[in-house]
TrEMBL record:
It comes from the Bacteria. Coiled coil: none annotated. This is Guanylate kinase. Belongs to the guanylate kinase family. Its main location: cytoplasm. PANTHER family: GUANYLATE KINASE, GUANYLATE KINASE-RELATED. The gene is gmk. ATP binds at residues 11-18. It comes from Pilibacter termitis. Keywords: ATP-binding, Cytoplasm, Kinase, Nucleotide-binding, Transferase. Essential for recycling GMP and indirectly, cGMP. Gene3D superfamilies: Guanylate Kinase phosphate binding domain (3.30.63.10), P-loop containing nucleotide triphosphate hydrolases (3.40.50.300).
Length: 205
């Protein structure tokens, strides 16, 4: 069976990754499985354990790192965030596509380990709009907003390491662009060729 496609959706905090991802999953062009990250940050109002994140302690997170159970992880504004490896591997092995929504340091770790993934960077129309979105969300203190803005500047400089950049000017348009990228990635020759190899082996005499 052809392995699923690993989709890494990344970009600065507050750019709208979660909002665009929700639109993609609500209006799918085909099925993806969302990888729920682990984090040590406190749960926000309305967030559900196991759905938005696996909320775990620092000790539990560090044990997972030690045991090699994270595909990638990063410390971001004082908290750990990471992708549990087991779910990703098992799902890809079933031939299903896996969608990761992660920050830039983590995405670059994934690129080292799985360069055949699709790396998509979601950008804001400009930095003033990014600040407006982070502030408008109302989830962060002024100090944390400054830290997120500083990190965003550094992250935008890393955009060239990605395969695609998508501007999140309007949610529906950004989601359509991402879906189109994923659709066309399925037709890359090095993915399609796997199926033909299997077929040729089956019919070889
Ligand atoms: N295209 C858009 N136009 C205007 N506002 C937007 C747009 N996309 C997202 N937003 C708003 O920006 C804010 C941040 O969005 P969201 O929480 O999805 O960002 P994020 O990148 O997932 O953040 P984080 O990485 O910190 O979780 C939300 O209030 C959201 O409604
Ligand atoms: N490297 C990783 N980054 C992740 C992961 N899950 C989420 N994130 C990113 O962290 C920041 C902050 O998130 P918030 O929920 O506190 O606003 C944001 O950029 C997320 O995309 C992960 O597993 N690994």
């Amino acid at each position: 069976m052809t392995r699923g496609l690993l989709i890494v959706f990344s970009g600065p905090s507050g750019v709208g990754k979660g909002t665009v991802r929700k639109e993609i999953f609500d209006t799918p062009s085909h099925s993806f499985e969302y990888s729920v990250s682990a984090t040590t940050r406190a749960k926000r109002e309305g967030e559900v354990d196991g759905v938005d994140y696996h909320f775990i302690s620092r000790e539990e997170f560090e044990k997972m790192i030690e045991n090699g159970e994270m595909l990638e992880y990063a410390e971001y504004v004082g908290n750990y965030y990471g992708t549990p490896l087991k779910y990703v591997n098992e799902t890809l092995d079933k031939g299903k596509d896996v969608f990761l929504e992660i920050e830039v340091k983590g995405a670059l770790q994934v690129k080292e380990k799985a360069p055949d993934g699709v790396f998509i960077f979601l950008t804001p129309p400009d930095l003033a709009e990014l600040r407006k979105r982070i502030t408008g969300r109302g989830t962060d203190s002024p100090e944390v907003i400054e830290q997120r803005m500083q990190t965003a500047r550094e992250e935008i400089e890393m955009m060239s390491l990605y395969d695609y950049a998508v501007v999140n000017d309007e949610v529906h348009h950004a989601a359509e662009r991402v879906k189109n990228i994923i659709k066309s990635e399925h037709f890359r020759v090095n993915r399609v060729i796997g199926k033909y190899k299997e077929m040729l082996e089956e019919f070889s005499v």
